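Researcher: Please predict.
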Amino acid sequence: MKKAKVFYVFAFLLASVGSGKAQQTSYEWKQASEEGYSYKYVSNDPTHSRFYTLQNGLTVILSPSNKQPRIQTYIATKAGSKTDPKDHTGLAHYLEHLLFKGTERYGSLDWAKEKPLLDKIDGLYESYNSTKDEVKRKAIYKEIDAVSGEAAKYAIANEYDKLMSHMGAEGTNAFTSFEQTVYIEDIPNNVVDKFLAVQAERFKSPVFRLFHTELEAVYEEKNIGLDTDNRKAIEAMFEGLFPTNNYGQQTVIGTVEHLKNPSLKAIRAYFETYYVPNNMGVIMSGDFDPNVMIKKIEAAFSYMKAKEVPPYTFDPEKPISSPILKEVKGPNAEFLFLGFRFPGAASKDAQMLNLLGSILTNGSAGLIDLDLVKSQKLLGAGAFPYILKDYSMLILQGNPSQGQSLDQVKELLLAELAKLRKGEFSEDLITSIVNNERKAQIARNESYQDRAEELMGAFTSELDWSNELRNTDWLATVTKKDIVDFANKYLSNQNYVAIYKRQGVDENVVKVIKPEITPVTVNREAQSEFLTKVNAMPEEEIKPVWLDYNKDIQKSSVYGVDVLAVENKDNELFSLVYRFPLGKWNNRLLGLAAGYFEFLGTKDKSSEQFSKAFYKLATDFSVSAGNEETTVSIAGLDRNFGPSVQLIQDLLKNCVADQEAFEAYIARLKKTRINAKENKGAIMDGLKAYAKYGAKNPFNYTFTDAELDQLKADDLVKVLHDLAQTKHSVLYFGPKKVAQMIAVLPALKNGKGAFTAIPVGASFKELPTNENQVLISNYNMKQAEIFWFRNSDSYNTALTPTVSLFNTYFGGGMGSIVFQTIRESKALAYSTYAFYGQPYKKENHYTIGAYIGTQSDKFMDAISGMNELINVLPESSKSFETAKLSLMKSIASERVTNTGILNSYLAAERLGNQTDIRKTVYEKIPVLTFADVKAFHSKEFSKKPYIYCIVADESSLKKEDLDSLGKVRKLSLQEIFGY
């Protein structure tokens, strides 16, 4: 499920900061015709999008951009969980999974032999669906398992992914939401014919093969959701806001009962009803000629026949006249949601809602930002518009500080809404929001991927693109009175839903129990005639482009510090980074000081005034302290470069201690640390650090609560002042040439004296992995998460091509050996992967990692399945050649630009590389053989000791199973976190 982006707008010319007004641009629908195809477009649209409607009703939206030789594609259906049958919720999501399984022409070794078996499976599922007697159900499922095993002998698992990987596609994925199901690919622009051949076939005659193993993957996805407090709270919010609309009556994944009783016939009926051309769209943005592309798309999809789509009808929701209170329990830290209902996406009120959301929360100067976050009255808070077709929502979230109740959180949030209704905010805030949105849109317009996503969202929500384009100009006309009237119309102290997410055991959770599944054949070496034909289709070669660090980066120096610069020749955006070669390892206080920085001001200007000043300039700023490096960054508009630099330097060099802010900061920090101990992801990160470095590691290199109590505000301010006097380098990306930039860049350091010495800090040695161990932390959850860890050798540039190819072949995607075996064949996990990880710098070691998230009752099966792959590398010549081609095509079509050039250079420098390492990989891949990769696997993976990092409910695991893996150590949260 994806949240709608705030402001689907594309106003390209920036307004002057201070007025927020820009010359009104005319965005009007126009009609045009080229080379026999009529299309609509909007005048002055900076995305140059064309909107076609083919004779069969298929919508095609094309937005050309030649920044990279790639194309972002979406094939979208305007149907999702909202239109699931009442007795088969989760069906649209099932279908999304099954549309990766192939058709009669691909994914099958012998369709004539496979079809009768699949027909039999269809009938067995209908019997299973209608049978209530558990003994009979088990017998039917046993037969389903047996027949599925026979059918799998004629199936080619993941042939869709093999087709796309062979093209060099990236980001192969799909998602289902309430009213959209969207299929995603990012392809090189020279494989369009191949891509369209596959997609046309994909939606022509899909075959729902390998269903029972995919069903198990959906079960796992459901169980992950049952372990996710945030998802449960959101579902409760929708249920409260929408007692009539299916937004609140049906979840995307569906109920446990419906998941256990699937109907392939119902899924097929859904496909035939909603996957019709007049309900679908093909959206593309990237490097292509739209006149050529539209002809290809029509040729591919003209077979589709239009069909009337049943409209979704619903009774309007009744107004909420008194607060609706709901409670959700789970292991994570407590929080509160407040939700308000608004009109749907196409209404002007939905556009106003987006603006209202920014007045409350914009990350810098919103009411909630300043009153609750910067003032540290809450641990965290925000307001988020959620725009859907039938209705929209405003959801407020509040995270309590230590000792606060959720009711106190609610009162603080409601008080901010009261200020909104009373107009207790500056009209300048509207101006600043408009300016920041225009800046953000410049950045979004540069990305072919962002363009395609916004066009897709507008299509599925049935928004008028001309209105979206003129939205920023419209926002600039909105007055404070308009917002106050709007807030009073929709927001009161009575018309909300409140979700109290409390800590505790959720007794209502019923996980989907694992059915008995016999591993199926995946036929790795097989390929269909269709795949052979598609792969043989001609394509023009894309020549790779390598970085030349001596030419692509301008190098200079000023005030005794090095400057690296890349010129922005496309627009007026800039970024400036002060990079310091010290971090938290050098001084534990540095991380605390970086967090304290956002709450500080100077003698002349408060913290709130700084936030407002940065936001008015449309400039972002941040201080980030890593283990060995610290950065101070600003990013904004070149016209405001000078004032932005002056602001950040003033704040860093002249910040003053604020005792009240310090005390609140330390209190919030303590609460944040408590919450981290209740987060399974943070616990797993701690286990990994323990596995890599031992008991004393960077993760738990921190302060105890007693040490925090001894700190003073002046201690942290001194760290920030010292930072400004420390030797650093400057990274710049923007319209200025390096000489122009340094001519207007003031010195960060005060005076002409020596730079402050960099303190020698702690060092952490990566420990050799000499024996099998188990590091386990108990956590109340339905799943078990297992991460295999091993430290390997020091960095070796010569290994990079082999490592890149190995990762692609073994564990790097849907077509990888790990995914095919663990998920497709054995149905042991929804999420699984493995990798040989590159170190951060040349002094560090490679790391081996593998992951499975599985149901606790499949714990040992999952571990055995991964260990088999770790010890013996399966050979598939077809998959290996696909991995080589995929890697080479991805590299050839990749263009490293903008700040990416600087990041690439710094990464190469850390590893001791003088040139763009991609060139070496590209040149070496063709000569690497499977024997090379197998030898690498044998040396680095096979029969080696590993540390198993496990987060799970210990009561669901057997002690003898854990003991069989290695020496077991149950780590306390104190040992993991260091406090």
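Model: Confidence is low (pLDDT under 50) at residues 1-22.
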